[in-house]
Structure formats: structure tokens, C-alpha cells
Write a sequence for this structure.
């Protein structure tokens, strides 16, 4: 039968429906088995949005001596001072580690920092502001998860510790050097402290 546009159309009474019962049973069986298997797996539950209160708890687990003034947290990891500033209205956060004065940075050093920002600094970055060179981790606040925050802080500490050497955020260092092992140990230590949350 041809429709108004010259295309073939089928009337439903011409379709043989005898096989649909078996297909329906097979489909329901597959769906049941798949849903049962999925329930047996450890599926992580999604975290709620990051709030100032959650962030304060995570940071306090990393350094119980944290000092908080409004949206600013000051604490240390491995004797490295860290400043975290969060703005819930702008939905942004920034972790910063002071590295050195930026006054004497030469062109070659600035180029090396930009190269590191491209490949080895990972989620942390080198930045210049207020006459200082900083290691920074910047992220939207509400979608930030606990492990992302901990990893970002570890990477920021790592770019400060490796400044002048490998300039590395630490997680992905190619070759057989020591940098990835140093980062991995720091990350595991911080994750262990944050597990109780």
C-alpha cells in the first residue's frame, strides 16, 4: 500500500505477532539479570554538592590545626602552607601555595612554567599574582568531590615541592624517576586522612 508521499506503509493487521511473546519474555529476562548484577556491584553513591561546611570538614581531616576566616582556610601539608579561598555565590574555589617572589623570574623560567602547565603540572598550575609565584588548583565549587579536592591539594603541594626540578603535579610522570612515587605517597596519605569523612 502506498501512502500520500509514495512510501510504502504497513497496516498493523498484516504484522505477524506470534513471535513477540517470546521476544518480550527474553527481553524481560535479560533486563532482570542485568539489574541483579548491577545491584551486586559496589556502585559509588554520588556525593552532594561541595559546600563550605563539607570543605571545612575535609580540610580539618587533613590538618586539624586549620585556621578558617570566612571563606578562607589556611593550613599546612608537609610543612607547605596552603591557602584555600571559596566563593559559593560564584561557585568557585582556589587552593594556593606560595612558592617564591616573582620579581626575579627570567624569560626562560617563565617559559618552563608554561610548559609545565601544559603537561606535567596536571590539575595544579603555576601562576603569578601579587608579585609572587604560586602553585594553584582552581575548580568550580559545587561539583568538586572529596577525592578531587584532596588530589588537587596534593598536586598543588607537589608543584611547589618540584619547582626548579621536574615542575610536576606528580600523578603522571613518565620514566623511572622518583617524582611519581613521592606524589603517590603524599596522595595516599591525604586520602587515608580524608576517608573518615
Amino acid at each position: 500500500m502506498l501512502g500520500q508521499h509514495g512510501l510504502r506503509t504497513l497496516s498493523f493487521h498484516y504484522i505477524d505477532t506470534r513471535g513477540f511473546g517470546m521476544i518480550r519474555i527474553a527481553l524481560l529476562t535479560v533486563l532482570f539479570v542485568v539489574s541483579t548484577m548491577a545491584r551486586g556491584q559496589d556502585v559509588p553513591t554520588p556525593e552532594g554538592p561541595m559546600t563550605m561546611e563539607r570543605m571545612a570538614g575535609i580540610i580539618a581531616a587533613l590538618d586539624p590545626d586549620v585556621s578558617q576566616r570566612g571563606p578562607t582556610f589556611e593550613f599546612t601539608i608537609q610543612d607547605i602552607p596552603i591557602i584555600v579561598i571559596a566563593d559559593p555565590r560564584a561557585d568557585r574555589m582556589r587552593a594556593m601555595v606560595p612558592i617564591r617572589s616573582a620579581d626575579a623570574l627570567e624569560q626562560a623560567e617563565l617559559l618552563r612554567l608554561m610548559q609545565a602547565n601544559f603537561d606535567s603540572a596536571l590539575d595544579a598550575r603555576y601562576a603569578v599574582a601579587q608579585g609572587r609565584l604560586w602553585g594553584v588548583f582552581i575548580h568550580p565549587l559545587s561539583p568538586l568531590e572529596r577525592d578531587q579536592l584532596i588530589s588537587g591539594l596534593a598536586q598543588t603541594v607537589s608543584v611547589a615541592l618540584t619547582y626548579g626540578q621536574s615542575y610536576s603535579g606528580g600523578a603522571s610522570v613518565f620514566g623511572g624517576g622518583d617524582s611519581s612515587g613521592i606524589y603517590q605517597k603524599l596522595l595516599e596519605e591525604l586520602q587515608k586522612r580524608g576517608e573518615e569523612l
